[in-house]
Amino acid sequence: MKIEKRWIISFIVISIVCISGLFWEVPLEPKAVHSQFGTIEQIIPADVAWMLTSCCLVLIMTPGLAFFYGGMVGKKNVISTMLQSFICMGVVTLIWVVVGFSLAFGEPMGIHIGDGFYSFVGDPTTFTFFDYVGVLPHKLIASTVPFMLFALFQMKFAIIAPAIITGSFAERVRFISYLLFICLFSIFIYSPLCHAVWYPTGILGSFFGVKDFAGGTVVHMSAGFAALAGVLVLGKRKNSSHVPTNIPFVLLGTGMLWFGWIGFNAGSSMEANGVAAMAFGTTTTASAAAMLTWIFFDRINGRKVSALGACIGAVVGLVSITPAAGYVSVPESMFFGFVAALVSNVIVYSKYLKGIDDTLDVFACHGVGGIMGMILTAIFAHGEDASLLHGGWGVFGHHMTALLLVSIYTFFGAYLLFKITDKIIPMRVSEEAEKMGLDLSQHDETLFPIECAE
């Protein structure tokens, strides 16, 4: 069997990365960044326990997403679709350790505007191979837990972001091309956006005042617009009509996502405190409201109540409350889920999205859900100068400007990365491979071996 050059290159790259760990010299002399670390005495055990738990909760969301997506595709593409989510736990983990975390939370690189300094991205050499990422807390970012724990918690967010994108171009993407794309996305889209929103001097958070408690902008808007770009680059499937293979998979995946989302949102408080408890409450309530809104709205539009609709509605609610989970009350969170479900439902069934073939409606659910969450956060978030109701039109205008900038950056940035990837390794599988199904054509595996053998 002839081995393609692209796979040999891939093996060489992973070999270099892993073997270099043996020879990577652990820094002995502290850099300037070392002064930003606190002491071991400042660590609060309760916060450590909660953040360790949250890390596990967020990690289980990626297998949950795999079941969620895997149950919705045709029977010839279940394994390939699920693997595209699972593989992110391998690819993005190594990228995050080597350079991603530095780009997101390294020493800031930016510009001075007036008396302030606003950064766009972190220095990629600050925490390369997790240099200086150890047991001491970081004074500016996570002052009561080991910096290693903060880095691992953030890594779980970085893992699920590209996994979300996969639902848009399911059933037609070449696996090796997809691997290259998620590397580029993590480095050039996700990490800089993460820095701009969540680093203390990040331009979106500090200059524009963007409120994003747990990733509505960083994770869901970036993934949603990247999904839209991917659909436009890859084009429609040859046969865009399929019956979901396994609705129980979708139910299981939704349950895992909802369970893990507690760590996603409540864990973003970074402490075991009242804010975490409030985020727990708003997350659960928004999802419940969105689930019921979705199925009732389906019914009054002539569609039957379905398990699939209930699951999609629940996830839309989770997405919409994410940027505001720690900033709004539980009653307000019901409104978040209600509005987001209505808007996403209308867009899911719009002729335009059906025309471009977003396979699993990623943009309509995650992209639009993230947009609605950001808009509603800009209206309702509590705190001084936090939103329209607590700061005025100027604050709201800054949020909307930031929303526009994020939309442009993530869509056109991802579109460019898809084009670059396609030039290096064509992303679309052949018509024959698509007809056969990606499970067999890409992975030589199948969900129904007996049927296929016959």
TrEMBL record:
Please give the name of this protein.
Ammonium transporter
Give the Ammonium transporter AmtB-like domain ranges: 49-446
Subcellular location(s) per record: Cell membrane; Membrane
Membrane topology per the record?
Multi-pass membrane protein
Q: Which residues cross the membrane?
A: 7-28, 48-70, 82-105, 140-163, 175-193, 213-235, 247-264, 276-296, 308-328, 334-353, 360-380, 400-418
Q: Which UniProt keywords apply?
A: Ammonia transport, Membrane, Transmembrane, Transmembrane helix, Transport
Q: Which domain of life is it from?
A: Bacteria
What family does the entry list? Belongs to the ammonia transporter channel (TC 1.A.11.2) family.
Does the keyword section mention Transmembrane helix? yes
Q: What is its main location?
A: membrane
